[in-house]
Automatic annotation (TrEMBL), chain A:
This is Phosphate transport system permease protein PstA. The chain crosses the membrane at residues 21-50, 78-104, 116-141, 147-165, 263-286. It comes from Granulicella mallensis. Residues 79-281 form the ABC transmembrane type-1 domain. It comes from the Bacteria. It holds the Pfam family BPD_transp_1.
From TrEMBL, chain B:
The lineage of its organism: Bacteria, Pseudomonadati, Acidobacteriota, Terriglobia, Terriglobales. SMART domains: AAA. InterPro entries: AAA+_ATPase (IPR003593), ABC_transporter-like_ATP-bd (IPR003439), ABC_transporter-like_CS (IPR017871), P-loop_NTPase (IPR027417), PstB-like (IPR005670). Signal peptide: none annotated. This is Phosphate transport system ATP-binding protein. One of its GO terms (biological process) is phosphate ion transmembrane transport. Residues 5-247 form the ABC transporter domain. Coiled coil: none annotated.
Length: 295, 252
């Protein structure tokens, strides 16, 4: 009996040493993984700034592309075009995606239609973007007999929907049941509970999902080749082909001219900056007036 | 003013499980009535049948008659209307975390489309005063989230939120079981004050609590109402052997 406390103290000490080593090891692994993720990101961004910043000047943002052989020119039409196509894609894709996510989380649990939507969204998420472009081509461009900004927006919207739907569903599932009960117990109708309580509580996660979907399609080139097509000139019409940054970058980067390569780097830098600025703006806007919970 | 509650032949099921069996009971207006019994005896299901929250679970159903005042809640009105007249306070405080203290209290009115700001201000102040929370939060009404205050304050906030829609009945499902003794005492004081204006039904595991706040007590066991009488009678001279066994701690 007398030896037991000593033995258990030894055991305790050994165990403690092992636990400390394991703790440090796992923390180290986590830090290492973070670095592994960050290095390529920072490297790409740094290289982009290094290569692209020098080609950015006033003309880049105000002029349309110059004909081959002429110096100067810019990508103003592509910057605006990307804005138009992405704006349209968000306008179509975000409401549909959130709506489908709400159905899955609040109404479609255990129903056949819910399972079909969930399965479709997961499959759609894995479809190559060029296939999305072909689908939009077949559905819109082939019918209308011409390329258009509208077709580009639709192609990107379809790509946004599955990500937004699944994120919305998952974020709504994290809203505690007790909070829904509180609302129902006050005699608030279900649709209002979903809108003002469930969605509002889940909104930070849903906004993140929308931003991820937006950032992903902002750089898509393949679906736009068959739809928005590209345009060397100004166009604001949804019915006409329109220029977009990824298309310009693609065209300029595979061209044989040094001047165009320079512009491609500039375009890539502007594209990344546009994504970062819009994501940041949405975050600031979404966090305004949000009260922080205590726990 | 509160309304009385008449329950006739109430039965409830969760899927195949028969959780409430032929409950008959008259709960008088403007009094506090306690429901006691071991876990799983059906007392929570019973209060959830009184405001038709029971049926929000897709596999649950209920049959029988429940009259609150002069309305038969399973015949005369939609569940949403019933729940506006019968407030509910849950076991764990459940304020809306994204809303301010003010918006939490106003939510029952606002989310039902009521917009008059001056009236809302009045209702919020009156409800928070009734819930004995006004003095503690009046400076942070719109600055703090409903989830940022302490657990006991959150529960009183939930009571204020329930009172703001001016219900006739207040159902409380173990409202103090997740709280510390000081907060529990505050909730009990509150029940004492509120019962002059509302009919209060409180489910509790704490028999001293039942004895302290309620004029009438019902004892539930395995889905049946074993005994319902004056609280004093239940705790000093119960007519049923099973009630006596339970309150003397012989089981449960």
């Amino acid at each position: 009996m007398g030896s037991l406390p000593i033995r258990s103290a030894n055991f305790e000490r050994l165990n403690k040493a092992r636990r400390t080593v394991t703790d440090h090891f796992v923390t180290g692994l986590a830090i290492l993984s973070t670095i592994v993720v960050l290095v390529p990101l920072v490297a790409i961004l740094g290289y982009l700034i290094y290569k692209g910043a020098s080609s950015l000047n006033f003309a880049f943002f105000t002029h349309i592309p110059a004909p081959v052989g002429e110096q100067g020119g810019g990508m103003s039409n592509a910057i605006v075009g990307s804005g138009v196509v992405l704006g349209l894609a968000s306008l179509l894709g975000i409401p549909v995606g959130i709506g489908a996510g709400v159905y899955l989380a609040e109404y479609g649990q255990g129903r056949l239609l819910g399972n079909i939507i969930r399965f479709t969204a997961d499959v759609l998420n894995g479809v190559p973007s060029i296939v999305m472009g072909m689908a939009a081509f077949a559905l819109i461009v082939a019918k209308q007999q011409h390329y258009s900004a509208f077709a580009g927006g639709v192609a990107l919207a379809i790509m946004m929907v599955p990500t937004i739907t699944r994120t919305t569903e998952e974020m709504l599932a994290t809203v505690p049941h007790a909070i829904r009960e509180a609302a129902l117990g006050l005699g608030i109708p279900k649709w209002r509970t979903v809108l003002s309580v469930s969605l509002r509580t889940a909104s930070p996660g849903i906004i993140t999902g929308c931003m991820l979907a937006f950032a992903r399609v902002a750089g898509e080139t393949a679906p736009l080749i068959f739809t928005a097509f590209g345009n060397e000139f100004w166009s604001f019409s949804l019915k006409e082909p329109i220029a977009a940054l990824p298309l310009e970058i693609y065209k300029y980067a595979i061209s044989p001219y040094d001047e165009w390569h320079r512009l491609a780097w500039g375009g890539a830098l502007v594209l990344i900056a546009m994504i970062m600025v819009s994501v940041t703006l949405v975050r600031i806007f979404a966090n305004r007036g949000v009260l922080k919970g205590g726990h | 003013m509160g309304a009385d509650i008449r329950v006739e032949n109430l039965n409830a099921w969760y899927g195949q499980t028969h959780t409430l069996k032929d409950i008959n009971l008259h709960i008088p207006a403007n009094h506090a009535t306690a429901l006691i019994g071991p876990s799983g005896c059906g007392k929570s299901t019973f209060v959830r049948c009184l405001n038709r929250m029971h049926e929000t679970n897709p596999i649950a159903r209920a049959e029988g008659t429940v009259r609150i005042g002069d309305i038969d809640i399973y015949k005369d009105a939609a569940p949403v209307e019933i729940r506006r007249r019968i407030g509910m306070v849950f076991q764990r405080p459940n304020p809306f975390p994204t809303m301010s203290i003010y918006d939490n209290v106003a939510s029952g009115l606002k989310l039902n489309g009521f917009r008059n700001k001056r009236v809302l201000d009045e209702v919020v102040e009156r409800s928070l005063k009734s819930a004995a929370l006004w003095d503690e939060v009046k400076d942070d009404l719109k600055k703090k989230s409903g989830a940022s205050i302490s657990g006991g304050q959150q529960q009183r906030l939930c009571i204020a939120r329930a009172l703001a829609v001016d219900p006739e009945v207040l159902l409380m499902d173990e409202p103090a079981s997740a709280l510390d003794p000081v907060s529990t005492a505050k909730i009990e004081d509150l029940i004492f004050q509120l019962k002059s204006q509302y009919t209060i039904v409180i489910v509790t595991h704490n028999m001293q609590q039942a004895a302290r706040v309620a004029e009438h007590t019902g004892f539930f066991l395995t889905g049946t109402l074993v005994e319902f009488d004056k609280t004093h009678k239940i705790f000093t001279n119960p007519s049923d052997k099973r009630t006596e066994d339970y309150i003397t701690g012989r089981f449960g």
